[in-house]
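WARN retry 2 of 3 for item q-0093 after timeout on previous attempt; input resubmitted unchanged.
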Amino acid sequence: MSLKVLVVDDASFVRDTVKRTLRQFLPNLELHEAVDGRRAMSVMKLNKIDIVLSDWEMPEMSGAELLQWVRNESKSPEVPFIMISSRGDRDHIVKAIQSGVSDYLAKPFTAEELQRKVVKQLNKIGYKESKRPAQRDSAFGSIDVLTGGNTEKRTVDSAPAGQQKGQNIFAKPAKVVSAKTGGFEGRAQLRFANLTCQCVVRELSLQMMTGFMVRPEQLPGLFDQAVVDLENKSGEALARLNAYVHSLQAMENNPDTQKIKIVVRFVDNDPEKFEIISKAIA
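OK item q-0093 returned
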């Protein structure tokens, strides 16, 4: 029997990352996905889901609201529910556990961390892995990340009301503000799975951020997940944005240079965050 997993996140990049990782260690996998809690509810009403992995901050219906519905109104109130969030502060984690989550996974996360959390919950419900080998990524095996095509995937229509399918709220011409020209004034902290870096913001737009940072001992890789904690010049938090590494460039013609230019692209599809960035670069 297939293991039915529901992945809920408004960012397609995060959903694809989770799905790709799950396929690497779980055989007989039937993947379902949704862009917010409301669509996740629709999936769960039509399918008996074995485990839920859900983002916490989403438009339309948050992960917290979805969790309340699952525990109090759904047909599967005991289903394992793993919260995935870019908020890693202790108070938030404690509050989530008190709300009824089964476990917590902080963004950005490694494949090993995700596997450990999922396997722990599957062991609790007595799931036994099939002898059929799990799918392994290859040059062609992960082509669905680029095309969105996957015969195993059952997807609830992910286009929010009033938005055409395939359209992204960030898919409009970017308003780019250069730090040199006196537009956005602030800084950012970049959080990766295994390191945190301070970054001077060079350019900021609705789709991406360009910045300068000191070279860490271990550089992040292209397409690595990142969380951008954006601050104004007074050090006040403006936004917490999910992103991925788009490019890395040495700022000097020297292999020992300590100055790195980094470009990250935002993956959130949240109108609230969209508005925050718009105000920041206005």
